[in-house]
Amino acid sequence: MPELPEVETIRRQLLPQVVGRHILSVRVTRSRAVRAHATPDEFIRLLGHAAIIDIIRRGKALLFLLDNGRSLLARLGMSGRLKTADPSSTPEPHTHVFIELSGGVELRYIDPRTFGQMAVVEGHDPDRMIELGHYGVEPLGEAFTPEVLCRALSGKTALIQAVLMDQTKITGIGKIYADEACFLAGVHPERAACSLTDDEIVRLHAAIREVLQKAVEARGTSTLDAAYRDAAGNVGGFQFQLHVYQQNGRPCRVCGTLIEYRPFQGRRMHFCPCCQH
DNA sequence: AATGGGGCCTGAGAGC
DNA sequence: TGCTCTCAGGCCCCAT
Q: At CA A272, angle to CA A271 and CA A274, rounded to 5?
């Protein structure tokens, strides 16, 4: 599932391939992929023949900044992928959007489960976009401090896991890194957010940054169903460093106790019953 | 205001 | 072999 490290990996790969190129033509083969617009034609019209001047990331969202004052927003959902291809090459199954660029490059959006989407939005500043304005702090940015995490957790009866995945508090964390950050911090994910001590909040803050940074360095995590591929079509490397996510039944790398999982809001959370309290 | 649950989707894998 | 069922989860919407 593309979370912050996966999206950042794709951004870095696409940057040298698409920046500076103009949009020549756009094709949408599944309207659900651009469902924020009344029709695919509207999406295509708003893109026009703009040039891509930069790609920035906000949480799990990618923004292709255009020289017409708008931005192409891509949210990958569970199974969304972006890649560049030769315009004449056979598209992979579930390719829903084709953006032909100058220089013989085509940007393609692929998404089997169709939870993701593309949209054209006004402006270049994500904090001023209604689509992304509700997003919380960037966990790898300077603004994310232990104090900010403390405010996000304080008074919350919801589980730590739920708060970490709440994009309006901290943006970019999903199932994988919420599980992993709790493990690194030694905190049980089933605890109420407000129950963490100051020391635990400091540890959790450091754990969030550490796990995200290491996952970016490893080019993201490709989980069991291998849905995630980077823009070059390769799997990530962080799945080999996971401690708890989808590791249930395996011995903890630290203490050897078997990793467990429990249902959580229709999902599962993974933890080591010995290392996390 | 905060919280929890349902629905959207398709492919992989399990079970029969 | 081939069918049916379950699971995966980001994000939005709605009820409490």
A: 145
